[in-house]
Backbone:
């Protein structure tokens, strides 16, 4: 097991993992050692469950940002049968923060659009840490239109702190392209599934987040702003990020209760970063089940339901003063 990127609150979990690793590496096949390993694994499950059942919203943000968490390309490698990447927006360039291409998932041929952060520092720099430029969203729109042409469902994997905030991105129409993408997705005449696999930050996430089914992984978050951004605006200091995380109500449980999302996909014990393969199996199961449901719905009805779904969001009641 890799403990390099352990989070602060995972200290008791990592301590047990290191003990198990040491005993396994020793190669000792003595019965007492084997019994000790079994007991430690049982203890690991209990401690891990206790820690992860009681995570604060700020700790969930840390899990969502974990460096070992599976990204779009990991799911393409583990859950899909084939993937052919498509590049470029035919206007400016190819944004590596957005990954697009044809894919096969059992009997379904689909178009995949997803944010990609990169694993190493060099990859992360090339991918702008998952923050897409306008050309990334133009690429996504072009590939979605291609999917519509061939009658292929669209699957979007969302994992971004937000759209790229630089001057160049603004000059090339960042806000406009996000609005265009949302508008086009609202009318796209094919089924759309959107899944937040890590960070779902601001307009950068919403730009590829208009779909017939919106799901969030158990320890991901989906928010109008990052906790640090919110703390900087309200309290003028990033030190208040944990307090902002509490106030924003952006965890999967909150989002489901508020009706912003349709489903929560359960992660393996200890988070998706601990078991990519098990997470990919759960992802594939969710996608195939949901695709079977959506492809049965007449397309006119599907688009109308999508419209009504987003119109319902944000409804609230104000109490009358006494």
Residues:
């Amino acid at each position: 097991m890799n403990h390099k990127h352990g989070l602060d609150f995972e200290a008791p979990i990592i301590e047990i993992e290191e003990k198990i690793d040491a005993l396994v590496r020793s190669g000792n096949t003595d019965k007492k050692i084997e019994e000790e390993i079994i007991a430690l694994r049982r203890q690991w499950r209990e401690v891990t469950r206790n820690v992860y059942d009681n995570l604060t919203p700020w700790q969930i943000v840390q899990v969502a940002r974990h460096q070992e968490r599976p990204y779009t390309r990991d799911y393409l490698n583990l859950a899909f049968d084939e993937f052919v990447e498509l590049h470029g927006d035919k206007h400016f360039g190819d944004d590596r923060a957005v990954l697009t291409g044809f894919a096969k998932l059992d009997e379904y041929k689909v178009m995949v659009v997803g944010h990609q952060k990169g694993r190493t520092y060099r990859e992360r720099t090339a991918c702008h840490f998952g923050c897409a430029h306008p050309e990334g969203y133009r690429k996504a729109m072009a590939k979605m239109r291609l999917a519509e042409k061939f009658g292929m469902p669209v699957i979007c994997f969302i994992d971004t702190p937000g759209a790229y905030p630089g001057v160049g991105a603004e000059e090339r129409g960042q806000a406009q392209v996000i609005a265009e993408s949302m508008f086009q997705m609202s009318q796209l005449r094919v089924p759309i599934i959107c899944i937040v696999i890590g960070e779902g930050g601001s307009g950068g996430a919403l730009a590829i987040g208009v779909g017939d089914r919106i799901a969030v992984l158990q320890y991901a978050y989906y928010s109008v702003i990052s906790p640090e951004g919110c703390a900087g605006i309200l309290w003028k200091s990033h030190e208040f990020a944990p307090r902002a995380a509490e106030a924003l109500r952006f965890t999967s449980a909150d989002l489901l209760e508020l009706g912003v999302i349709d489903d929560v996909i359960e992660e393996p014990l200890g988070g998706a970063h601990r078991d990519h393969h098990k997470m990919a199996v759960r992802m594939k199961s969710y996608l195939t089940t949901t695709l079977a449901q959506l492809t049965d719905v007449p397309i006119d009805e599907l688009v109308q339901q999508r419209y009504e779904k987003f119109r319902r969001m944000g409804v609230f009641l104000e109490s009358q003063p006494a």
Notes: The chain has two domains: 8-54, 61-312.
